[in-house]
Structures are given as structure tokens and as C-alpha cells.
Amino acid sequence: MEKESIIKGLHPLEIKVLLQFTRGEKLTNELLMDTLSFNLGQCNQVFSWLSQKALIKESQREKHVFLEITELGEEYHKAGTPEECMIRLLEKEGPLTLPDIAKKMGIENKDAGSAFGSLSKEGVLLMDKEKRVCIGDCSGNKKMDVLKDLIASVSDQGQVLLDSLTEEQKGIVLQHSKKRGSAAGIFKIAEREKISYSITDDGVSAGKALKERGITGEEIGILTPEILARGEWKTKGFRGYNINVPPSRVLLGRKNPYVNFLVDLKDKLISLGFEEFEGPLVETEFWNSDALFMPQFHSARDIHDVFYITEPQYAKEIENPYLDHVAKTHENGWETGSRGWNYSFDRNFTKRLILRSQGTVLSAKTLTKAKIPGKYFGVVRCFRPDTVDATHAADFYQIEGIVLGEHVHLKNLLGLLKVFAVEVAGSKEVKYVPAYFPFTEPSVEVHIKHDVLGWFELGGSGIFRPEVTKPLGINVPVLAWGLGIDRMALLSLGLNDLRDLFTSDIEQVRLRKRRNSYAEN
Amino acid sequence: MPKIEVNEKAFFSLIGKKLDEDELIRILPGAKAELDDWDESEGILKIELNDTNRPDLWSTAGLARQVKILLGCGLPVYDFFSMKEDMKETGDRIIKVDPNLKDIRPYIAAFAAKGKPIEESFLIDIIQTQEKICGNYGQKRKSIAMGVYRADMIQYPVSYCAADPVKTSFVPLGFQRRMNLREILTDHPKGVEFGWIVHQFEKFPFLKDAKDDVLSFPPIINSATLGALEPGDSFLFIELTGIYIDTLLLAASIVACDFADFGYDILPVLVSYPYDTLYGREIPTPFYFQKNISLEVSFGAKLLGETITPDEAAASIAKAGNQVTTEKNTVILSPPPYRNDFLHPVDIVEEIMIGRGMDSFIPEMPGDYTIGRLSRAEVFSREVRDIMVGLGFTEMIYNYLGSRSDFIEKMNVPDSGFIHIQNPMTENYAMVRKSILPNLLASESVSANAVYPHKIFETGKVAFIDPAENYGSITKNYCAFLEANKDAGFNDMNAYVSAFFFYLSKTYLLKETEDPRFIPGRTALIYYTDQLVGILGEFHPSVLENWGIQMPCAGVEIDLDILLKAEGV
Questions:
Q1: CB contact under 8 A, A309 and B420
Q2: What residues of chain B lie within 8 A of the CB of A283, using their CB?
Q3: Which CATH architecture has domain A71-193?
Q4: How far apart are CA A449 and CA A451, in angstroms?
């Protein structure tokens, strides 16, 4: 089985080596270059792969001195040496002075001088009476040809054993080698380890298996449009891939799991017949608290419970008749049947601009334009001066809603809360307890039993007080509810710190997953 | 929500029997209370009270009273309350009020309590009552402050006067030396804590007896003599001062009932005002000021969704702890002296609900048919999110509040148009964002270890100053996106913008602009028809440096509200 997967995973280069050689042969870079026309890189690669699979093993390791080419050498290989270039220039333009030559070749005077020097020594170039350089006896040009050939062969092979050179070549090499610390030379001489390998028993049997199956290493790898166009696939087989290679990572665009959690909540509420409301982040004390019949001296209306805006401090106006109605309701109950809070309502303070601190502010505003019967909800970002930690946030979502109807009552409220418990929180057990909110009467909290979290408070609710609804023009009962979704959101996202819901960390968001989003009810 | 500590021994002795944890958990919701913890070794129950309008429940005696009622032990009777037509005898126990207090701290209520030597556990409970009633219900002593004194050292009449803060001095509790009232505000810890209530007045409230012995400097601190209570004292004088008469009278009644429940005789005190009050110039306290309130039973029954007869309603109301009578189809409730939370007949409905028990109400879905609908902004935002994800972007969601450093300084922009918070808790939540781009860069600055390219976006709200608006500011829905990569730049971003507009079936135009956040020559304003809807650019290296970002970034921000508006209605 293992052998099978090794054979299937072999690269064409490996296949060629295993088919070509057998036990006892000494495998070297040179051998592979000669017999299989590999380049140096391919040799190194194939030895490394086959060693890892134990199809070959290292048999000998000896130090050798190699000749390698430098970057400058590669340049000369492409463009020619300065000597060659100079001869070509003179052949084309006739005799020139050395400064002219340097200028035309774009090199320094002294480099032009040294190229001339080495060529004039061989008699290839001469200096005429007008100090112009002209071509002399080209038969002395042999040395230059040797250099040119050598550059080409070292460049092609990557490295050449210094000992394999002729004496003449060696002389030239020494003349053009980079010396330690000096500027560029054409060659560099480096001592490298030369490793030879031998085929192992596994390698031999792998080779046999390849032969039996007729695998040649010439099979089609990546299928290209050219192969399709030429129809090569009709005559060639395909190389099998190792399907166990770990896949590379794909970076994808995706929606944020917390946003999706909120989106699903909205969809649930839509399915229950609720219409979504929205509103501005900045609000007035009027809508945030006064319209909800919270007296202006209420202990929860402290500087510590709401963020005040620095500038501007006050709204230009509060819409009438709502302002008058609400003010009178606070003062003496107005026409609501209430005795009111019995204090003098501050009509300036009510215009104070703040960041909304509870979603109910939008429920109240919605009353002024609500249909009867009607159901409304909002997923509302709220702000409170709280010390931020794993369980407290200063900037968070609340889910709030209202139900208006001529005949709605407490039992409908309990019914809705039960549906939320089942549909939104996935809980089957529900418990109701009396509660207190300044703007509802009666008020009820709903507690649910969650599979993981145990019993906890899912939300608060009640029937809006007439002191809230009548001043805003509503004369039917209004059920109001709010759900605490943070704990469910954390659970759903596998988190335990509220701050992580709004994380800046890209990797966290990329990897984050939601649980239970398509659980059965 | 107030949380109190209840002495277990005293609590169960007041109730008359010991309850186990299950019984307690079952009964407490009737008092809108929750058992947080029961420390059996210390004998302390920790209880959270949810009704901020029921301060009578915020003490051991008060909570025990309500539990006893819910257990069916009947209503307690208190015979020391005066009413308009029934003034109780006060003997020489008189407090004379100085006319100058009318605009400073006009009201006072008091009584004496005589009984057994005071136990330490009760003393602790009195201090807790003072903290909860005065601190929480009384707005940190502004509308209610309370003092307890050794009654046998007091010579009546007591005078509640407006004193010169510099010329008046005494030895306050907790100190050895005489201090004048101004010094107390600056040097005494209670003066530092509560001085804000009186410091703006020329004269301060002051309480002394007929011998000129000092009781206290309300609402700040007692004297070290008459005001130094000790375990073993058995005759006490209790006074409360405040600025709203109903709130004050209620608080005094609550404290008096607590003392009575602990077995003390309550001796009323007559307060004599030189000015008119809601209840006259001579008020014996504790004083029952509450008015009867009536409910048409059919209205309550409709709200509860049940068929209820007046007698059934009355029975439930009584069970919840109230005196009640019926008259045809109406029930008339007389609030207990320690409660003043019946503002509207609906408040009686809740008493019926509690009296009947929550379990008696069977949940039922509303019968009205209504159509559910998302807001247009939400529908549009969903479309935009789909496009952005299709373009390979990862959606982020951020806090709307942030710091000056992130929104202004690191962005190289001036402090203009931002909504600042006047009372921030920390500089990290000090202003509202007017652009999403700083949030995206903040992500980039903490995500250098995440595999590139980074392509992120958010659709969300921003808000900024707009003098034309009634609120002086406007909230808008924006979409912003950012790419960070070796070759992130203007052209790629423009390609995304092009796709964005194409799939929204809209066209756009770019106009070159300069913006301190972006590289000059690689910044453009985005126009839809002739309206400016956004900006596109390569972030300036100085901005990237401010954020500590080592990767080129380009960003786009688009006003979704303008594009949505163009969709028509």
C-alpha cells in the first residue's frame, strides 16, 4: 500500500532516474546531466526527493573544487566580453581613439584601456600613429575564443570541476576569477561537496514496478489548452497525483458570523410578522427617557448612565404635540388617568442631546407613526458609560419590539415571549416572573432553560403604561419587549468575551464559525 | 437595581418561620426579588431587588414583610400614622422649621423609637437602609437624607434651621475637633462626598435641640455627641430631610414600619412649618399621605386577557398586600403606608397579576395578522454585502465609538464634524465615528501576521455634525472597504468600485482630489450623478506609519443612503 502510494506520487524526473539506472551505479550530477539532460537544479531536486522516499541513498561524499560563474560572467555570456565588444565596434566603425571607444561602449576609460591591453598583447589590436586603435592580426584571437567557450560551458552546466580544465583554460580562469574582496570577476572558484548516490532495493523495485506498468515519466502532468489543441491526450497517459498532499489555503471573501447572527434574528422576526424600525445614534433625553415616563429625577437618569454630546448640546425643538403631552403627563398625568410624577418638567433638559442608551427609544418613536394592528422591531446599537470588560460593553446591540392591537393582552405577550424562546433561543422551557420597568405595567421577565447556559434571563417585557402611549397618540394596548442576545451570540460564535464580537482581528474573523445556525427546532 | 444583604436570623424570625432555598426562590419573584447568594456560614442572604419604585423592600424588615404577605399571613397593621383627619398625639416632640429653608432643603420628617437595646445586626440593617433609601432612591442623599440619634439626650423642641456655614461649628462624627460647616465640606470625607448638594447655598441646613446641642448638619454628617449611636441604645430619634415632600414622607414611613416590625414603639413627632406644604403647616410624622386609587375591573381583565369578577380581583389585590374594597365593577385600593407606586389604575392590574400568580396565565399568540418587513436600509445593505463578498472581501463589524487618537490623529484629519462625548469613561470610547476607514486601518494594524492579501469591508452606521438637522447631527449608512497587499493600489480599488456600481445598476464618476489621508494624485472623489457619494485612494505612507502598518493599503468609502435614495420609493 505504501509502495503503491510512493509510485503514484513520483514526479516525472524521479521516474526517469528510476527507469534509467539500477543497483550499483554511482549517481552524480554529471551523470544525470549527460544521460538525462537534466540541469543542475533538476539534479539537486531529484536527489532530494528520491532520498526522502529512501529510493536512493547517499553513497559517497567528497570535496571538489568547482568553477562557477558570477553575475558579471552571466552578463558577458549574454552580451559578450568587453574585448569581443571592442573588436565588434572597431570592425563596424573603423579606427577610434580609446576615449571614443570607452564612450561608445559606455564603459570607463580604464576598463577600455585594460581590454585594449590584453588584446594588443596578442597582437589582435594595434595603436596607429594618430593614437587610434585599429584591428591587427585576428589569428591571435584564440585566447578570447577559449574564454568565450568556457563562459558558455560554465554558465550552462552551473559548475565545472576545476581539475577537468586544460592548462590553458586554467590560466585564463585564474586571470578572470573573482578574488576574495575584489570587485567583480567572471568566475568564482568554490570548494563544494560532491555527493554521489546509489539506488536502494526499494528504488530498484519501484523501477521494476514502473516498467511493468509502462510508466515512462512522459505522462501528461498539468493539462494545458495546448495539449487539448494538439490532441496529445489521445496518445499519452496522465500522471496520477498524490491526493494526500495537504491542500494550500484559500483566502475567501465571507460575511461576518456575528452580522449573520443578527441577520438571522431579523429574519425570524420578519417571519413572525414584525416590521423593522431604524433611527439615529444621537437622541434627545425626551425620546430616550421622558417619552418613556421616566421622571427626570429618576435614579437611572444620572450622568453615569448616559453619554452626553459635547456639541451641540440641545436639539432645536421637540415635536409637538408630543412635547406638551409628555410634559403634562409627567407633571400631573394629563389625560392618561395617571397622577403623574408631580414635579415641574424641565423643557430645556428634555432637549439635551445624548447617545441613545436603550432600544426602547425607537419603540417610543415608532408609536407616533404606527399602524394598528402593528408589530415592529429593531436591532438597535446602544451606548452606555460602562467599564468595558468581558461581560460589559459600552457599545452594544439591543433587540426591541412592540405589538399594537385593540385586543392584545398579557397572555399574548407571554405567547410571543415563548415563541422567541423557542425560535430565537432554541429553548423548550420558559419561566415568567414579575418585573419592573418604568415604562411598562404589568412587567414580565422571561427566563429560559438553555442546553448549555442553563436558566437565564432572555428578556424583559410588559405592556406600555398609558402614560407612554397616550401622549404619543396611541389609545390601544401596546406590548413591548426586549431581548438580551449577547450571551446567545457568544455561545453561537464559540466566544466568551463580549469585546470579541466587534474584534478588529482579521484572522479571527476569517476563521470564526457559527454553531447551531441550522439546527432543527 | 439595588442589592441588599439580609440577616438570615432576623429575616426568618420576622417572617415567623424558616424557609428553605427552594421555597425562597419560589416566593421571591412576587416581590420582584431574586436570591443572588446564600452565605450560610455568615448567615447572610444576598438579594437583588428589581423594582426601583419599591424602596420599602430594600431592607430585612421590608422584604420579610412582603414575603409574609405572600405566604398568606395577612396585612400588617401600623397604628402610629397620622392622616389629615386623624392627627396622632405628639406631646412635646416638635420640630420647628426655619423659613429660610424653603429654598434650600424645605422638608423634614421624624419620629422616636423606643424598645429593646439595639442589636448590632439591626444597626447594620439601619445603615444599609440609609445607604439604599438615601443613596439610591434619594438620589445620593439629594432628595432624602437620614439621621439617627440618641433620643434621651434630646430636648424638644428641635429646631431645623438655616445656619451660617462659617459661624456655625460642631464636632462631626468621626472627628475629634470642632469644624465649621464649610470646613466639613472640604475636610470631612462625607462633606467631600455629599457637599455638592448644599455648597451653592448661602446658608446650610442645620439641626439642633432646645439646649443648642447639635444633632447634625443634614444631609452631610451627624454630630459626635447626639448623633453617635451605639449598640445597647434603646431610645432613638430618627429624622429625614429632603426636597420633595411625598418622597420624604414615604421614606420616613418605610423606616418607621421597619422599626415597628423589629418591635419598637413609634412615637410621632410634629413638624411645624412657617410655609405652606401640600399637607398643611403642621404635619405629624409618620404621615399617611397616599390616596385611594380605583380600577374598573373590566379594563384590568382585558389587559390581562382573562375574565375576572370584581371579587376575584379584590382577592388577588389583597393577596399581593393591599387594603381593597369593591364598589360595583370597580375595585378601590388603599396603598400600604410604605408604598407610593400606584400612579395609574394599571398599577393595580399588576397587583392582580401577582396575586393570581404568573402560572395562571396561559400563553397565547396575538390574533392580528401583520406583514413582516425589513427596513429598506437593511435590504440594501444585504445587497451590498453580497457584492462585497463576491469581490472577495471579508466582512468586519466594529464599535461605533472610538478614540481621538484613532479617528483624528492617526488619520491626519482635523477635528471637524465629529460628535464628541462630554462624559466619556475612557479615551477609547470618547467620540462617534464619522468614517469606517479608521476601523479598517485599525484592523490592518493588528493583523500583520494574517496571510495577505487582506480584503476587508463593513457596512454600518456613521454619524457627524450637520447644523441643518434638528439634532445638529446626522446618522448615515456607509460601506467602506480596504485592501492591503504588496501591490494594493488605486487601480485595483477602482476596479472594485466599478464592479460595485455595475451590480447596483448605477454609474459613477471620479474627480481627482486632495485629502490628507491619501497620496496626492492617487485620490478621487466618487460621484453618483452630481452627488458626492464617496472617496477612493491609496493611503498615505504617513497615515500607514501612524498606524504602524508596513503594507500598502488602498481604501474606499461610499454613502449608501444617497444610493438607496436614488432607488426611489
A1: yes
A2: 471
A3: Orthogonal Bundle (1.10)
A4: 7
